[in-house]
């Protein structure tokens, strides 16, 4: 099902363009962002899961339990006529949030890790520093866990720099909530206007990131991050509408990258494309895939000795 979501057809691509630039036409024609069977799958899965937990009084410390409690609170407020009319926490809303969580751990995460390994292959000195941090943390904790990954600050900076240079989602869409004039201009954006935010362009603006094509994790140290204005790093958006799966995605990527670097060495191979070329897709993907050389880190280090 995940492949169906992230392998869009031409019909899907056209639908996305219409939704972005002609929302009234999109609604009038009853177009869909995803195939109907995909929507039905996630709605049915979410509904069945929540009903099973509610009927059997199953409580777990997870994301789905949080959504269930929010929906129950909404239903209680509606019964008492205290619910806000501004937002209805319907089953479709619950399914949409569950889908975002799914997406955070599926395509965007795997794509980012691929780009990350590509950059580490081309920057061996950064790879060595990351491996050393992973080993130091594992020696301290005895294993890789959620707690131990919180101390892998350099690995996190590598992921952040990867998201900066290769943001999975190149543009964000937001609705203007009140009429605003862009500072320093006479351009007025009316309330209700659909605004496209060029994430890729912002991430490659030399004003915020000098030498933007250079892969440099040090950009994201606390000292350097404080030098940049807010809203110049937007792989997950920002503010109240920030991606709900962001923390999960970071945790997953740090664990996967740490596990990989502990055991394997990655380097360019004869098929590696330098410089990298992107495919024509609504998500940022490498054209023709990524080809890298992977070898056992233990054997590689034994040979170097």
From TrEMBL:
Gene Ontology cellular component terms for the protein in this record: endoplasmic reticulum membrane
Main subcellular localisation: endoplasmic reticulum
Gene3D superfamilies reported for this sequence: Cytochrome P450
The keyword Oxidoreductase is assigned to this record: yes
Positions contributing to heme binding: 243
GO MF annotation terms: heme binding; iron ion binding; monooxygenase activity; oxidoreductase activity, acting on paired donors, with incorporation or reduction of molecular oxygen
Record flagged with keyword Amino-acid biosynthesis: no
Keywords: Endoplasmic reticulum, Heme, Iron, Membrane, Metal-binding, Microsome, Monooxygenase, Oxidoreductase
Membrane topology summary: Peripheral membrane protein
SUPFAM superfamilies from the UniProt entry: Cytochrome P450
A matching Pfam family: p450
TM segment ranges: none
Family as reported in the entry's similarity comment: Belongs to the cytochrome P450 family.
Name the record gives this protein: Cytochrome P450
Source organism per UniProt: Bemisia tabaci (Sweetpotato whitefly)
